């Protein structure tokens, strides 16, 4: 069979002829009709249905189940005898078992009706509304069709299943809803259902695809071979193909009729063309009237010139009036320029004051350093005096202790008995000499130790100062390293996005600004960062331009305060804390400023404006307003910059210049750049990345070296402090040894002869100690007096240092209001420039108005000149015309009317000419159309002849295939026979011979028994199924007239066919109990549903009972 499936892309233009039969006789309800939700008294009938056998998920090993077109489920609501009934079919074999009257045939009827079939197809009712359950207002049928795999229908919209819902109403109206597997309504049109059925090749009106009881019964009792032949054609869709060919032939006849009509008009058209050609040749001119018109046209031309000359006078008068207002505009422009100059002078004055403060601070720095050094000296002197005071105090304490010891000795000597101490005296003197030698050595050692202690203390102080400086250097290195690391990260990110040079957050900020502008939140789209809106013509001037523009490189500009607030809100969300760009308000102008008169001109050096490429005029105008880039020179060499700006007279309109190193040069000042590399305008990102990495590496090396020095310094400080403490300990020990020796010496020296006891020496020693104590006390007073004087000097030095430091702080504090004044002066300059720009714009508009009026005057004068020239061309001699152009024109019109009246009689020359050429062209077009139609009909005849031959061959092959399959099926029962086709007279007869009547062929199936006829019918249906492409086959009570043997063989044949055709779905309805049959053992391909027994009292429609009684009568 030929499958008429369209791809998903072609479904919008399917063939409508295939569905013509299914669409006729249906009333399609408005898709907006509201559906009623009804609760039937038979709700829950599905609970008594039993899935008795089979697992639908098990695949047959020989063939895959179908992906598309099979019926997965059907749901009936208030349909025929069912309040609610639901089935979920398996992909291959499905049995619906139920006694007569149980409503199983309603499943097939619901399937036909739900898929758009007419009531007459079902043989169960005359109209759609007859299927609504008695006592209900509406019925619903829902069918779920599988939609998987490569041949799925619109899988993006429907998913893996197409759900078709049809609602039937009592008034005969019907509506459709096609839903996706998720329940979303995709369409409510009948045409979409037709497209779905065409795509899956589902033939609702094919009696073999869905074979009900009545069709089967009529076929068993039918003798008409012509009906069987029609049955065969309809089942194999050959009837549809034949109908399509007939439609094409009818259209061909219509084209042939059109061709004949056009050929009949050719002689008449040819005659008309000849007549019009004759009129075209015979047309004469109207000479005299036309000559008069020519004369009047001469007068009309000079009359127009005269009137145009009069119109020039008011224009010239208006120009003079407007020119009289020019001085007023000039005055306003001059006043605004003076305000700008005053604001700039104020700005320069504030800058001068700031510079003076800076100079004062610079002048105080040497004094500040001198006072700081003097303060340090005074502190050192105080410390030294304090150390000496402690030393004298220790000596005083020692002397007093020694005096007390001598006094104790005197007391002891007075009490002891004097003995012979001569030998003892000599020994004592020797011992005293030895002790004095030890004392001298210890005192020398003590002096050395004091010197070393002072050296260690000075070394610790020096090292601590160096340590402080190194820690500050290390902090600077860490800060610079973090800045460079952030800069390196921005540069590496900017390889793919140049905006990341300004920070990783900048692309997101620009994106949100664009989104806000698209949403209409800005009056004008803000520009920025401004550094991304410019590019350099000379890469060597990158640092110079960045030094000139400074923070403007990172800034944004907004058109007004509204846009500023919106932009500020976006920045708060996107920008990190402390890195938010500044926003400057400046009215946007889409046309670039004309700065040709106010800009700097130099033969050798360009202005900043000259070295920049700026595509956006708003950005260039903004930089002109805010930074005067047209008045700033770019001079690469520092010496040349000083030569041009300071040693020579600066160029006109130029107050400052920048060098390639970023230095700023004024006429009387020079400021060096704080950096030696550009950040934003460098052309080579890789070069800047490499340089930044090298700087980081150098900084890391410097940091390592600094940390190493710090560690060494800290180690040196610890060592010196340890040595200082060790020497102080040694000093204390040495002092103790000295004191001990001195005591021993004094003790030895104080020994005298006991007789008489003479203590005068000791008393003299006491007196000596008293003198020493007095001397030390006087020395203490002197030291304290000196210390107090030094302390006063220290306080004076500290006061002097604080005074100078306070002066520097005061100067710095006094600079803050000047900086604020400088900011306000910047705003005043900006406002003054805007006012100047406003009046300059007004002045320019005024001049433009005068120029426009002058242009209009010149245009009018030129028109007068052109009209005069035209008039000279029309009439070389100037005519003095007193009549108006309108009067002359009216006379021309009257004469032309007379000419037209004459042309009506004789024919207008232009119309006759036009008519002639149009008729000739029309005649040629018709001849071309006739030629094309003949060629088309010839091609169509050739194609249709081929199609007819292919149709006959295809029909013959289908007949042979069906006959072969029919014979094989009969052999299963031991029958013989054949399907006899006569395509000339369109008949099909079945010849069957049972195994018992082997003497002659049974030509009439009515002579067979009921079971044999049913078996033969099954064989015939299976043969047609083999030639049919529908994805499912439905058969109702196929075995009702069979005996057990025929039923078993028929079932075995059908199950064998089902096993061999796993990609097809089979639905069998039978009143027989199929659960115990041995030929249904393959449960992997089968599902069985058992209908509940019917309630003979209620729930069955009258025609159901009638069909049941007729079936019972036949069995009897």
UniProtKB/TrEMBL annotation:
It comes from Branchiostoma floridae. GO terms for cellular component: chromosome, telomeric region; nucleus. The keyword Nucleus applies. One of its GO terms (molecular function) is ATP binding. Residues 238-501, 682-730, 759-905 form a coiled coil. Residues 71-1072 form the RecF/RecN/SMC N-terminal domain. This is Structural maintenance of chromosomes protein 6. GO terms for biological process: DNA recombination; double-strand break repair. Keywords: ATP-binding, Chromosome, Coiled coil, DNA damage, DNA recombination, DNA repair, Nucleotide-binding, Nucleus. Pfam families: SMC_N (PF02463). Belongs to the SMC family. SMC6 subfamily. Residues 30-48 have a biased composition (Acidic residues).
